[in-house]
Structures are given as structure tokens and as C-alpha cells.
């Protein structure tokens, strides 16, 4: 059985991280919020037209045809975005260095995968020994020069939205009609 240090064997002393290699549990309590607004106005217009006639010695009448289309598309959008991010949980970090004043430089990361989603969290910063509680825990907002990163990779991709589908369909139909009219006109000549 390994020898216990004086702090570990004492009934009156808390076991707290103080030296290189010791582990501290960080209680994550991070919250940020922000808001933004934007206004967008868009207006497009397309006009098209054609007419033609088919001359024929075989028919007792002369058929004429024509096509005309006007498409106006307008959009007035106002976007208001409020964003709030909250990160709560726990991560264990290891003491990498002890400064001359006794502060602890800590660093740690955690990688989990759930249903194809990979969650990666990393944390580094400086912890004052006085901020470590009797359960060997420190609150994340008590870490100086904290660099906290949380990323999610994989999982379900958000659906993208194709704007202007109706506009594209109408302009496509107008183009097709105009093309047919020109073709019939050329066949008649």
C-alpha cells in the first residue's frame, strides 16, 4: 500500500490540489447573451412577351398566338435574433504548473460521443488555491485567463431553406412559353 501524505491522512485537513499532477474538478457555470437586428428589402421584376402567327396554305384560317408575362417579386424582411448560451457541467483538469505565488496553471479536456455526435470540451487557466473548495472543486468563473471551448461535431445536419422557389418556377414557365412561341414562329416561316 502506498504511503499517504500528511494531508491525506489527517482528519482535520481537506484534500486539495496544490502540486503538479493533482486533479481539480471544475464546476462549469458559464452564461452569455446577446441580440442583433437586421432589416432587408429586396425587389425584382421580370417582363417577357412574344407573339407570332403561323402562315399556312392548308388551313382556311390563320392561327395567331401570343404570350406575355409580368413577374414582380418583393420581399421585406426584419430579423431579430436573441441568443443566450449556457454551459453547465463538470470537467476535471490537471495542475500543469505552480506559479511562484502559489497559483495553479490547470488544463484538461473531455471527449464524449453520443449517437454519432462528438462533444469535445477543453479548459485551461489559472486557479488560486484559495478558490478551491473543501471538495477539491472550483467554479469556472473563478478561473483567471480561462479558455473554455465546447464543440459539437456530427449528428443531424440542419435543413437548408431554398428561398425564391416560386419566383424561379414562374420565370422558368415564362421562358419555356417564350421558347415554344419562337420555335413555332420559325416553323411557320
UniProtKB/TrEMBL annotation:
Keywords: Bacterial flagellum, Cell outer membrane, Cell projection, Cilium, Flagellum, Membrane, Signal
The UniProt record lists the keyword Membrane: yes
GO biological process: bacterial-type flagellum-dependent cell motility
GO molecular function: cytoskeletal motor activity
Highest taxon above the source species: Bacteria
Main location (coarse class): other
Any one GO cellular component localisation term in the record: cell outer membrane
Cellular localization per UniProt: Bacterial flagellum basal body; Cell outer membrane
Cell membrane listed as a keyword: no
InterPro entries reported for this sequence: Flag_Lring
Xref: PANTHER family: FLAGELLAR L-RING PROTEIN (PTHR34933:SF1)
Function, in words: Assembles around the rod to form the L-ring and probably protects the motor/basal body from shearing forces during rotation.
Record-stated family: Belongs to the FlgH family.
UniProt protein name: Flagellar L-ring protein FlgH
Source lineage: Bacteria, Pseudomonadati, Balneolota, Balneolia, Balneolales
Amino acid at each position: 500500500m502506498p504511503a499517504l501524505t500528511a494531508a491525506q491522512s489527517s482528519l482535520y485537513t481537506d484534500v486539495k490540489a496544490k502540486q503538479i499532477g493533482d486533479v481539480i474538478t471544475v464546476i462549469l457555470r458559464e452564461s452569455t447573451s446577446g441580440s442583433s437586428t437586421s432589416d432587408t428589402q429586396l425587389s425584382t421584376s421580370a417582363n417577357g412577351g412574344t407573339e407570332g402567327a403561323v402562315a399556312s396554305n392548308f388551313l382556311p384560317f390563320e392561327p395567331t398566338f401570343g404570350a406575355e408575362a409580368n413577374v414582380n417579386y418583393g420581399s421585406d424582411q426584419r430579423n431579430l435574433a436573441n441568443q443566450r448560451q449556457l454551459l453547465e457541467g463538470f470537467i476535471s483538469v490537471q495542475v500543469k504548473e505552480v506559479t511562484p505565488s502559489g497559483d495553479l496553471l490547470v488544463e484538461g479536456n473531455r471527449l464524449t460521443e453520443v449517437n454519432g455526435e462528438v462533444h469535445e470540451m477543453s479548459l485551461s487557466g489559472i486557479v488560486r488555491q484559495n478558490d478551491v473548495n473543501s471538495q477539491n472543486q472550483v467554479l469556472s468563473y473563478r478561473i483567471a485567463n480561462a479558455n473554455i471551448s465546447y464543440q459539437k461535431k456530427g449528428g443531424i445536419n440542419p435543413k437548408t431553406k431554398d428561398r425564391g422557389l416560386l419566383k424561379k418556377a414562374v420565370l422558368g414557365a415564362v421562358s419555356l412559353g417564350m421558347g415554344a412561341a419562337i420555335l413555332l414562329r420559325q416553323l411557320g416561316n
